Amino acid sequence: MNPIKKNSKVISKIIIYLILLVASVSFLLPFIWLVRSSFMDIGQIFILPPEWIPRPFRWQNYPEALTAVPFGRYALNTITILIFVEAGVIITSTMSAFAFSRLRWKGRDKIFSVLLTSLMVPYVVTLIPTFLLWKALGGINTFLPLTVPAWFGGGMFNVFLLRQFFLTIPYELDEAAYLDGATPLQVLWKVIIPLSKPAILTVAIFTFMSVWNDLLGPIVYLNDPDKYTLAVGLATFVGMYTGQWNYLMAASTVMILPPIILFFIGQKFFVQGITLTGLKG
Amino acid sequence: MKKLVFLLVLLLTVSMAFSTITLTYMYWGSPLERKAQEDMLKAFEKAYPGIKVKAIHVPSNYDEKISAMLAGGKPPHVAQLGEGLAFEWAEKGEVMDILPLIKQDSDPSVQIENRLPMTWYWYGGGKKTFGTNLAAEVMVLWYNKELFDEAGVPYPPANPEEWTWDKFIDTAIKLTVDKNGKHPNEPGFDPKNIKTYGVVFGRWWGHFLPFIWSNGGDICDEEGKVPLINQPEAVEALQAFGDLVNKYHVAPTPAQLEAFPSFHIALQTKRVAMAINGQWALLDLGDLAKKGRLKLGVAPLPRFEKPVCLELGAPNVIFTKAVKDDPEVLKAAWELYKWSTDSEKVLPLIRGGLWMPLQIWWYKDPKYLEKWLDPKVHPPEYKEAVIDYLLNYGRRAPSYYLRNWNKIADIMYQEVGNILYGKVTAQEACDSMAKKIAPLLQGRYDK
Amino acid sequence: MRKLELKWGIILALPAILGFLIWNLGPMIASFVIGFTDWSVAGSPEFIGLANYKEIFFDDFIAKKSIIVTLYFAGGSVIVSMVTAFLAALLLNRKIRALPLFRTIFFLPSIVPAIANAVVWLWLFNPDFGLLNYILEIFGLSRLQWIYDEHQVIPSLIMMSAWGMGYTMMIFLAGLQGIPQQLYEAVAIDGGNWWHKFRHVTIPMMTPTIFFNLVMGLISSFQAFAQPYLMTNGGPNYASMLYCYYIYQNAFQYGRMGYASALSTILFIMILVLTLLIFKTSSYWVYYEGGRGR
């Protein structure tokens, strides 16, 4: 390689890193802004031009913001719901994705594309009819409406993701297992699932996020404040402190933390999961 | 004979102890309101041992929640409800007409003539009512006395007749200061860098409707059929409202307003000298005053032709479906309804500043006045600036009678926004408003 | 084997099929039927034929504005997010140090909960104290009103959604990494430069991924609701009245469930038609390599 070419390569490398750096900073700025405001006195937030370092450092915003609602109780409820939802989603979406990708049966692809239309139905539309259904089933003021649907396929988006992933696994593996006399269920359990951990974890993380974010569901279906979830608690809080940006920022930081922590813990698998969700149509 | 009486009494007591009725009561509000509501309900349960109340506090998405409950055929027995939905559902018979119950009851706290007349919601040709507001509420002008003292400007008069629009603008100009200490009427004033604004207000109807009325204008005619919002009186008032922002620079633009801390913090931190807002803001303002962090003052809204005091709020209602099958339940729900709207029973919320009483004697009888006016919370001029203002110049909001009010209010919100942003003249906005609300003007609920 | 697969296929797919029937098809049909009634969730629904649709198409100026605004937002946010995501993925698809770090940074915004997202952005957009105007001023540019101006509100919301493009980027990155190196080498042997590589290898090989992101992005942006609900109330002057928010307002604030249901049916048809259009045209521009699935 001649020196000129090498030089230009170094320069292009530097340019790329520079672009990356600028882009990263701009993507991170909102987070930095959020965290710095969450430690500020309300007065300092309104100083122009804006300041970056909280003076004084008001960590009390956090305890002050978070003692408004019984967070312990809400956390317990959220975790209870999470466990049932995660189990339901993981088990049934894996099953369905397997059926829609690795078993051949008549009408499979047609049914799958019909099922996919459920992605196009907005939540506000089905809220009342679904509520009436739960009413008829006697599920009001229980966790059932928030957990049971997870056991019916776990949402088509998840099925779709897993199916995409399963399609990337060579079919020879299944065939070998069938030759050894395995049943489809055994193939799913022994061949597909061990290879699909990243994808399943991805689904688990998405599920966590949707439960964590769900505000309307708990409010509509639960009557006892004792049964409320963390999202409801934080929403109460946001409604209460309109304009008190330092508290709002503190509460928001608290809300963002769990998904971020979870992402960092599962990062390796998560990235692999999304990455390998294959993309062969 | 004595034995028999004793036995009967015993039987009654026992049956009462065993046949508890459980009612559901649904409400919104901040944790402070929640505490007061819970105390109110506890006292109720104590007074009525046969009745248990299950309270549902819904902090957000209230409309979805109650819609779903009603659709499911199991609405709460008694609940707070937005006026729009309340009328919609009352006409369908879901929200109960309580007039017959009132007529059978001798409790003075619920008699028509004993509550502020404008707080009643009438429908069905004015022959039915689902009750009154939870409490009386009016729009007023809050101010920070310290800023007035520092600037050497006299406080706004507590007598609304004396508080003219010109005086108001003059006061606002004197109190508005940019970062160089200049006022809007001085050369070199920098409207982009205002340190203290003269006045702050919102853009929903409660903030501008009193001025339209005060100038002799209205949204529509008395029948609720013909838009009048584009008539000169209304246009003039809205133009004056917009001029506060765009001509005199004494009030923040809607965009700057978004940057504001909540207005009570703004008052306290001297970002603003006066604020048009609801009486209910006294809950927060009074708290600051109590802690000695704000020297709070209150005045009526400034007037054009004649002073007007806008009275508004939201009702407590009984749901028909929840009570119709069992007269005992109905009776219990009725007791709860009365209790929850009896100012005596919710006194902490009233003394704390959030609400004003419903029953007339609270306003007239000095003994009662003393009971609900907390000198640490209510400023000294409150009696004249708020109570007398309401009693002498009070006018009920259109939300008490006009059909499609929510939708009309949304349209006005957007259009008045355009005026405040300085994008259109009031005339243009009002013409557009008149055109848009004309098909929605379908009369009144009470006629 | 066939029979076995059929049996197990149906058994294993059953939960999803049942779930679809119970929680999607059922409510959808219910909503479709309610769309022909005048129902405020109180009393019994009254059949009024096509009156709701007539009102939507002929009398309701908000509905019309809302459709335009939603198309603008959906189109804009899909294009801007996809371009941002694609560029980010291209940057990351090189041999660079600290790739996981950069990838994490670009991805993080997409897992921020909606409420927190709204709180943060309200504050960033703040014309007086917000960070964005501060940055503009540092560069000597004039301040903007962001979501508080009729013409800037949708571009602002689009920018906000571009910030949350992390998931799309990950998919693109996956697609890029799946392109066989030999193809690039072949272009290089023919004397092609980076542009030729990009134009004749990257783009065609990425079409399935672009297709996927396009469909998913469109579907989700048509259903956007949180921004008007939590940030703008559909204003200023209905300029951010996204369709789902308008449905919500009618259903729960004006108590017009029947009308809201009719509005939703129209939305569903719009999404369905658009999706089908994209699928139909896909054979012209999406490149499939070898066989597809099984």
CATH superfamily of chain C: MetI-like
- Overall morphology of chain A: flat
The assigned structural class of chain C equals mainly alpha
Helix content of chain C: over 70%
At CATH level 3, the topology of the largest domain in chain A is MetI-like fold
Content of β-strand of chain A: under 5%
How many angstroms does the end-to-end distance of chain C come to? Answer: 16 Å
The shape of chain C is globular
Number of strands of chain A: 0
CATH architecture of chain C: Orthogonal Bundle
Looking at the overall shape, the CATH architecture of the largest domain in chain A is: Orthogonal Bundle
Order of helices and strands of chain C: HEEHHHHHHHHHHHH
- Termini separation of chain A comes to 41 Å
Largest sheet of chain A: none
Which regions of chain C are unreliable across 5 or more consecutive residues at pLDDT < 50?
290-294
Q: Profile the largest sheet of chain C.
A: 2 strands, antiparallel
Q: Which residues of chain A sit in consecutive blocks of at least 5 with pLDDT less than 50?
A: none
Radius of gyration of chain C: 23 Å
Count the helices of chain A. How many?
Answer: 14
How many distinct domains of chain A?
A: 2
Care to describe what's here?
The complex is a heterotrimer of chains A (281), B (447) and C (294). Chain A is an all-alpha fold. Helices cover 73% and strands 0% of the residues of chain A. In chain B, 44% of the residues lie in helices and 14% in strands. Chain B contains 20 helices and 13 strands. Chain C is mainly alpha-helical and 294 residues long. Chain C has a single domain (31-285), classed as MetI-like (MetI-like fold, Orthogonal Bundle), CATH 1.10.3720. In chain C, 72% of the residues lie in helices and 1% in strands. Chain C has helices spanning 2-34, 51-59, 61-92, 99-107, 114-125, 131-138, 153-163, 166-177, 181-189, 194-222, 226-232, 243-253, 257-285, and strands at residues 37-38, 46-47. In chain C, strands 1-2 form a two-stranded antiparallel ribbon. The model of chain C is unreliable at 290-294 (pLDDT under 50). Chains A and C meet through helix 1, helix 4, helix 5, helix 6 and helix 8 of A and helix 1, helix 4, helix 5, helix 6 and helix 8 of C.
